[in-house]
Amino acid sequence: MASESFRITTEILGLHPSLSSITIDQPASQLTTSWIRGGDGLIGFGVHARKEVVGTNRFHEASRWWREERSKLAIENNVHGSGTGPILFTSFAFNENEPSELVIPRIIVGRKGDKAWITWIGDQPQPKLSVATPSQSHLSISFSQGGLSEDEWMRQVERAVEKIKNDELEKIVLARDSIVTSDAPIDLQALLQSLEREYPSTWIFLVQNLIGATPELLVRLSKSLVTSRVLAGTIRRTGDEAKDLALAGSLAKSSKDLEEHEFAVRSVAQALAPYCSSTNVPESPFVLHLANVMHLATDVTCVLNESASQTDIFSLIEALHPSAAVCGTPTPAAKVAIGQLEGISRGRYAGPVGWIDARGDGEIGIALRCGQFNNERTQGRIFAGCGVVAGSVPADELAESQAKLIPMRTALATL
Fold first, then answer.
1. Which one of 69, 101, 163, 171 is the catalytic residue?
2. The domain 143-187+216-413: what is its CATH number?
3. CA distance to 5, 21, 105, 106, 137, per residue, from 29 (Å)
């Protein structure tokens, strides 16, 4: 083994409380990364290696860097299975000209069902875990206007509808942001715990100060099985069970929402087609119930072609991003129109976010229902986006965007 190699060890753990409540009392071992859903997932502490990638070759550069970093590790994995051993957390920007983040944590704790494990880099003994003490401080957090006012944003929705009616586009996703300001550093672990409590059916993610709760899975690769969960078409919940059931029924029959959903599903199936066989696309979507909204959802599954043996998850991410669910149709025209209409930089909002292990397995979501904060964690932006089609009404799209901002606004309000 080369002299620059690092020892990396994975061992079984006794079951612990929620992953988001775990801390490690070691220097430079603060919480840096997470990917949690329904109590299972991965959480990382400290940074072993980190890299920014920018440009049209960013996915290839990320794949190459991960291979190089893995080659430096002397891996002792006594657990095996997906998500064990060294893990790369990724958070790609929506646009290729903005920086994307790659992070390999120094310590990783994982959990799946009744099995839990810990991975650490270095020759030190197995790190000791403890439970985070809830913060007693109450922050003063304010929200202010982002790149566009509500009226300005609705006017841009009107312009987008005009483009669609003029056959320049079929669909476009327009995002808006809100500025978050805090009088003291935001405790990202407390924010993570709040999101996990309120939105357990979503994927709770954290990578380099980008934190959120996404319901959308861009791609999961497990051996040769590929899965993508597509969401498009949204209605706000009322909190009244009977009314929400009726709203779910209306969502499932809404021609506007079904049209938007069809665009998104079609874009995913077409992107995966060159790499996959045995593709399964259900004939109709199901309604996914979340705490604040309901979505039309479709799980697209397929198997990698034997001839695609050189295809890795980075290739699939590149093929799928950006999907119609976060960009529009046709994609090139929608991206140009987004630049003309949105009036904001998306940063890593609506970009691929998740993890990849040493075998190439991984789960990559789309960074939705999230906020991106500065290094001091005293200021940031939270985001929401809406799919605009020919039948879109600006006031309805604004209401939908406000519903999509609720997860981050309410989670921040608890701090």
1. 171
2. 3.60.120.10
3. 21, 14, 9, 8, 22
